Automatic annotation (TrEMBL):
MF terms (GO), sorted A to Z: citrate synthase activity
Entry protein name: Citrate synthase
Gene Ontology CC: one annotated term: cytosol
Biased composition, class Polar residues, residue ranges: 1-20
UniProtKB keywords: Transferase, Tricarboxylic acid cycle
Organism: Dictyobacter alpinus
Family: Belongs to the citrate synthase family.
One GO process term, biological-process aspect: carbohydrate metabolic process
Active site: residue positions: 275, 328
PANTHER family: CITRATE SYNTHASE, CITRATE SYNTHASE, PEROXISOMAL
Phylogenetic placement of the source organism: Bacteria, Bacillati, Chloroflexota, Ktedonobacteria, Ktedonobacterales
Entries under Pfam families matching the protein: Citrate_synt (PF00285)
Length: 392
């Protein structure tokens, strides 16, 4: 996400003619309440993110991704037995049907991992998913997202996919499947924190898309494929690798100020700054900043300096804009530190967000009404019809 980027937001189906006249349409559904949810709350003014009542800082510092997935799906943090049961269910779903693996094999090695993930989820849905979305399907999808990405990553390197290890948690197993090596504890901790922080984020564009599809009584795989399509866009989730590209272009602390001034002066984008919702510091960025510092102290020096200098220059050159570092800025540094290539950054966002998407899909179908908003027509009216032969 950059300084020029929006983020967004079931729609009560009422006669909104009076409300529309009273409230100007800013576009992008900004300021429009499109659903009620008990899953998460984003308080952009205070800079808070809450999952079912729990502050994101507490969850990120103490919980595994599996605990947070349980919280999002079932509404409460798990007991030890509930967590063990969920782990057992995850392990049972850590496999890909032969047809899905074959589909991945037949895709070009140069394909974007997000495209591979979208295609493989669609293939999995075609042979494995039917009927109303269920919690069992949510667990199955969330367990398989990392397998799809790791399978493609291994194949494009000329290697064969690996079998999951049942003793490993969600984050550790993903790293193992990518590399074939047991990951370092600090890398597991860093990736787990990332997965917790991005597991849900209110009515963002991809979550809204998933809920729209679910509201039509379509299946869970279709809703997830639609969400992936929305997440791929650079105005939503497709920007983390671009932060890394920006830092690489800046190159050093000595060149940072001149590069940033040039970018701001000529309308260039500072990737990883600004957010559609947060009017203060993104709480997820606060947690990721520390994780990035620990994961790679040397790379962190440049990231930290560019952040400090960019915020100062934005305040100087764009006064009143209140632009802050967003989640994608330090996501890039952290994911690079744990060994992920740039084109896996956004797909790994999807690995995390799958728990949130499926929680929202289940919430939608359990109290469903077709999402069907209105559009304010701005075209011509009362045109006189002219028969084809008389048109000039």
């Amino acid at each position: 996400m950059s300084t020029m980027i929006p983020d967004t937001g079931n729609t009560p189906q009422k006669d909104n003619s009076t409300a529309t006249a009273a409230r100007p349409n800013k576009g992008g559904l900004e300021g429009i309440v499109a659903a009620t949810t008990a899953i998460s709350k984003v308080d952009g003014t205070a800079g808070r993110l809450i999952y079912r009542g729990y502050d994101i800082h507490d969850l990120a510092r103490t919980c595994t991704y599996e605990e947070v997935a349980h919280l999002l799906w079932f509404g409460h943090l798990p007991t030890q037995k509930e967590l063990s049961d969920l782990h057992t269910k995850f392990v049972a779903e850590r496999n890909l049907p032969d047809l899905v693996v074959q589909t991945i094999r037949e895709l070009p090695k140069t394909a974007e991992p997000m495209d591979v993930l979208r295609t493989a989820v669609s293939a999995w849905g075609a042979i494995s998913v039917s009927g109303k979305p269920t919690i069992e399907q949510a667990i199955a999808a969330t367990a398989r997202f990392p397998l799809i990405l790791a399978t493609f990553h291994r194949l494009r390197q000329g290697k064969e996919p690996l079998e999951s290890r049942s003793e490993l948690g969600h984050a550790a197993n993903y790293l193992y499947l990518l590399t074939g090596e047991l990951p370092k504890e600090e890398h597991v901790r860093g990736l787990n924190t990332y997965l917790v922080l991005l597991a849900d984020h209110g009515m963002n564009a991809s979550t809204f898309t998933a809920r729209i599809v679910a509201s039509t009584e379509s299946d869970i795989a279709s809703a997830l494929v639609a969400a992936l399509g929305a997440l791929k866009g650079p105005l939503h989730g497709g920007a983390p690798s671009k932060v890394q590209d920006m830092l690489h272009e800046i190159g050093s602390v000595e060149k940072a100020e001149a590069w940033i001034r040039e970018a701001i002066t000529h309308g260039g984008r500072l990737m990883g700054f600004g957010h559609r919702v947060y009017k203060t510091t993104d709480p997820r960025a606060e947690e990721l900043r520390e994780m990035a510092r620990v994961a790679d102290p040397e790379d962190f020096k440049l990231s930290s300096y560019v952040e400090t200098k960019a915020l100062a220059l934005l305040d100087e050159m764009k006064p009143g804009r209140k632009l802050y570092t967003n989640v994608e800025y330090y996501s890039a540094a952290l994911m690079k530190a744990v060994g992920l290539s740039g084109d896996l950054f956004t797909p790994t966002f999807a690995v995390s967000r799958c728990a949130g998407w499926t929680a929202h899909i289940l919430e939608q179908v359990n109290n469903n009404r077709l999402i069907r908003p209105e559009a304010e027509y701005t075209g011509p009216q009362n045109e006189s019809f002219v028969p084809l032969a008389e048109r000039k």
